[in-house]
Batch of 3 targets.
Target 1
Amino acid sequence: MIPLSYYLVLSAILFTIGVVGVLVRRNAIMIFMAIELMLNAVNLSFVAIGKHLDSLDGQVFVFFVMAVAAAEVAVGLAIIVNLSRNKETINVDEINIMKW
């Protein structure tokens, strides 16, 4: 049996990689991939803690997180496609739609 701490350490490593990806990358699609990695890291910790406590609550939380993540990806990719058509780039440094 694998201890709970291994799962939580793996989850923390994946979450850290996701945070670094969001902070370092300038490509909007890569930033979305890093956000999804962070969400999956949290899902891993939910499932691991739920298994450790012999409860299904962790899996229920994962279900809702995945539903929100799917909606986020659908809206986010639609925004990226729209911006790439209008601005012809998906580099977040070059996109400044709030500027007059």
Target 2
Amino acid sequence: MSTLQIEGGPLLVGKVCVPPDKSVFHRAVFLSSISNGQSVIAPLSFGADNLSTLQVMQTLGVEVEVDEAKNEARLLGCGHPRGFRPGPLSLDCGNSGTTMRLLTGLLAASRSTYQLTGDESLTGRPMSRLRPLERMGAQIRGRSVAGRIYPPLEVEGAALRGGDFELEVASAQVKTALLLAGLFAEGPTRIREPGRSRDHTERMLRALSVRLDEAPDGCLTLLPRAAPFENPRFLVPPDFSSAAFMLAAALLTGGAGVEVRTGVNPTRTGFLDIVRAFGAEVDEREALMLSEEPVATLSVSGGGRLRGAEIGGSLTLRALDEIPLVAALAAFAEGTTRIRDAGELRVKESDRLAATAVLLRAFGARVTEHPDGLEIEGGRDRLHAASVTPALDHRLVMTAAVVGLALQGVTTVHGADIIGVSYPGFAADLRRLGAQVEQVEPVSVPVR
């Protein structure tokens, strides 16, 4: 595995446009796969998770052409899950939980059986929340451990029926799996969540003229699709979760001259509200809509006067992917920060709560772990550069790099290859802003 070597100190300045939103790209590929004619998705995403989705759809018979010159993917879909290459087939989802969960929703509407597997990290993630698809008529089997099911999954599609579904945990992945299945079910599909998860799927379906209503209490009602989509075109906004790392780096190094072009979907931007709660300022300008998704240029300032904050409820939900980064900012803030309602992070690529606590302690931070969150006693003076080996989790590796940028001395972050899951150009973009970051590849020693 390669390492990142970061020398802290330089102020960052410049403009950066982060990679395409991987959540939207996944969904665009799945919707293209059930369309007629040629679909176009632009710009391209070369994150490993998105490539996993493209590869499994190719295995299922979707024709995929990647045009790097035009920065777009063109897909020839199958019109319906029943048009996929019939099973039994084994579909490798790599490291991508989004691929596995959303794909299960589509395959539920097939009339065939498929096995979904992935790497060691993915096969250790519970998939029991997909059980509502069985109430629609599909069958889902997997390894059973302590009442939960784990991959590899066997998904047996069927004639589906709609119904009422009340999710125990707000989850955009489970919600999307139900919506994709509901497109092909008999009767309406109604979904209620305890909180509002990201709404990319709803925006995309409405743009495709799907009847999808939202009641005042948040209940979604989807009516099945009578005919396939025809030749859709998807424009993918820049990824806010990637932008958050650039904004945090700017905040901690005093780089008020950093401008980041990114998506600003309000169901995703809890991180900005948390930054404001810490006492920093966020400037948003040049706003526009890109295929139903808001986009803007962001900059931040005030990193030298951060103060602790209480973070929980819907704010945590809207910043769930960025919670390790929030904890890192809290380590530099004055006072104590308490993060609550983040128990979902225990079943991500790693146990992100436990792994974040371990990571920040390596830099000298004082962190107390709770079942659903963290308590961080802030203070820049106690922090120092370090050599760290985060869990094999792309967000933790990038969080460690951001911390290192703000500290004097050299920080070494092992396991940098995993960044390619979501942000292959992370180190290059930091260098473009003036950071001293070097990605060092392992030395290969020939065997004699």
Target 3
Amino acid sequence: MIGDGWDGEPSTRPHSGTGADPAPRRRVAVVTGSRSEFGLLAPVMHAVAAEPGLELLVVAAGEHLIQPALTFRDVRARFEVADSVPMQRAGRNSRIDAAEATGTGVARFARSFQGSRPDWVVVLGDRIEAFAAAAAASIAGIAVAHIHGGDRAEGIADEALRHAITKLAHLHLPATPASRERIVRMGEPERFVHAVGSPAIDGLEAIQALSPTALAEVCGEPEPPEVVVLMHPAGRHSELEESVASSVLEAVRPTRVLALHPNHDPGRDGVLKALREGEGRAHVVPHLPREVFVGLLKSVADRGGLLVGNSSAGLIEAAALRLPAVDIGPRQRGRETPPNVVHADSETPEAISRAINRARALDRAKLTHPYGDGRAGARIARLLAVHDPRDPTMLRKRCAY
């Protein structure tokens, strides 16, 4: 066991009805749809590629393909992309647009899987790209493995989508023992639910803090930032998202601030408008590759800084890096909260400022996290090799109680 409630390394014996050895070179389609989950999936992709009995197929979808497609370049620079699945359209960010994009995704994933014939389809989290891929695969009779299931987070439609993916999936790879227990209570058979840790923790130690020169290049000025702002929309109308983002920028004055562009979710235009109008209060960067982003967080942590916003990075990566984070609004409500996180009481500048002061007062030496030991990717790859994706007792879904 790896601590209380953690799964150890899986047995080498396959979980199949026949007791046969795992089939050679099982084809594993790992679906990535956004910059945020690509950073988490990259260690899984590397581990799948290194596992002798598996063949990696990377499918880039959704947000990666929205022009100017900067994040697709990140995927292609690190992995051979077996297929791409366009879903969203640039400039169309409403919830109705997201619903239409999901339908497009289900159809396009079905065609993709018909051509590549994967044995496993691997998805992570709760985004519409993951839901569309899981729906297409599950309906088509292809085994689905779901990473980071069982978490709670309101997001936009995240809570519903994540648990819906759980019911579509066959192999469950939650990040924490608490999430594992939640999946089991949803009626999923325990033998197919493995607490593996979060792949977001994998490889963090190997990434170096940004050097002063690199910091100056990223920030556009010689002095490093004291605060990183990463504020995503929470699915509300653009005017409200703009107001909240403006409140965040007001609260972090007069510190040196670097702000990143939000996800392509409903309400994005409002956040972007606030960032454009607040250019004098923050240096704004559209996108940073994962290694640069983590290196930036390490540099900010070393200098006693903060992460402010509503990204899951504040609750996962920042927790592992002992970087205090201020969480704002409903997007992460319900998620397991490590002690590095301080929730703002409301979305006003005054409440955010109070939360920032509480975060600065945290004893960083005592900060811990529940997300495992940094070996989630290898653990996931081994489970994909051990479990038989054609096991009828796994593929024929049935509530366990």
